[in-house]
Amino acid sequence: KLGGRIKPKRSISAIRPLFLCQPYCNNSIVKGNFKTIVQLPKYVDPNEWLAVNAFDFYNYVNIFYGSISDFCTPRECPNMSAGSGCEYFWMDGQKKTSKVPASQYIDFVMNWIQTLINDENTFPTKDGRDFPPTFVQTVRAIFKQLTRVFAHVYHSHYDKMLSLCQEAHFNSLFAHFVSFGREFDLLDKKDIVPMQELIDIMDNNGVLC
């Protein structure tokens, strides 16, 4: 006003997400990369290694999400999203898709994974029980859903991670997750698109293997 130019407002979509900004994108509790951590140890069955790590990633993601879940409400997160233009729909056992709030979607994910882990036919724990032929596909499906949880937390709740001083731990968990997924071909390229910029930063920093 007063004869001057009105500065156009910056669109919300043009604002760079916090998790891609310095210094947060470089915060980590791990120095170096995860190569030696994710490699299959000698004399360990590959499926056992996948099972143990899938269980651990599920638990850690569940713990981190639990720390910010009070802010992930149907009002604040009416859909399961990961940034502008990325929305996930839940598919039930009858292959019916539905739009649900992020909190409900993530609750479905965690319950679904817990059910798989508790199923002796899928995650055998007793001597003499073999892993099913479809076990790797099951782990890939678990990684797909956990990737979506990571993406939602990064895009919608990273400010809460910063407030709780958890970003370095969360970044390290994500780097470990991606490194393990790469090592055993568990991640589909289209599933990591919402997190590709952060993955590129981690690659450039030599964090990922």
UniProtKB/TrEMBL annotation:
<protein>
    <submittedName>
        <fullName>Maintenance of ploidy protein mob2</fullName>
    </submittedName>
</protein>
<dbReference type="InterPro" id="IPR036703">
    <property type="entry name" value="MOB_kinase_act_sf"/>
</dbReference>
<dbReference type="Pfam" id="PF03637">
    <property type="entry name" value="Mob1_phocein"/>
</dbReference>
<dbReference type="InterPro" id="IPR005301">
    <property type="entry name" value="MOB_kinase_act_fam"/>
</dbReference>
